[in-house]
Amino acid sequence: MPESPENAINNLMQNDPHIIAGAVLKGSEIVYSTDNWDISADIGRISSSWMSQNAQFIMVSGVKYSVLQMESERLVAMSYKGEGSIVASKDDVHKLIIYLDPDGYALGAVMEVQRAVTSMSEQSTYMDPNAQMGGIQDQTAEKASVGGGGTVDGGGTVDGGGTVDGGGTVGGGGTVDPQLKGEIKAFLDWIKDAEGLVGYINYYLQQNNAQII
Asked: Would you say 190 and 196 are in contact if contact means Cβ atoms under 8 Å apart?
């Protein structure tokens, strides 16, 4: 089942204590926001800046955040005056925007925010329940023998000039879970990004945090 917007943000805040506020949008409508953050007056400007993909900064609650990354699916901006950071991610349905306190590491939070957006996906079917695996209707009706015209998998022959697998198909139209697909894509993007995994490691090396390293 898809995560609710409230649960998605609560999970983020539990996993990273530096994430102290967040909001989820559908289109331009805020469907959930933490009690300590009201960005309703800023949504229009944030969305237009994000759509342009060339803004140098965004304004949220009167604070100017310089843009570090701005792509179609994610946005990272930081206050150089030490007033925290903004991280946002979106898919075809939701936008998730979170605020990190000044001690938080925005580039390290991108991956988790992207996963949180994916967790709210309304498409949650992993496999078509009507899919047939291998074209086999009745396992008890299978016959198997090797050589001399014996049949394998409902009518095919092995080593007797016939065919193997009797025309059955593998996979039967099953579909890949879009949530899993989105998580894998987000993870690979984060690894390839010069400020993603490498930046995350460098940050904690600089912090000399032996527990995390």
From this structure: yes
The DSSP code sequence of 121-186 is: -S----S-TT--STT-S-GGG--B--STT-EETTTEESSSSS-SGGG--SSTT----HHHHHHHHH
Query: 25 - beta bridge partners?
Result: 30, 95
Distance between CA atoms of 53 and 90, rounded to whole angstroms?
14
Q: Which helix (H) or strand (E) holds 48?
A: helix 43-52
pLDDT per position as a tens digit, 180-189: 565 566 567 6
- The single residue listed with the structure tokens 């926001």 is 33
The token pair at 208 is: 């000399």
Q: Which two tokens stand for residue 123?
A: 């498409």
pLDDT tens profile 156-182 = 444 444 444 444 444 445 566 655 565
Sign of CA dihedral 36, 41, 44, 48: negative
Question: Which tokens belong to 67?
Answer: 């843009």
Output the six-digit token pair for 41. Answer: 């007056």
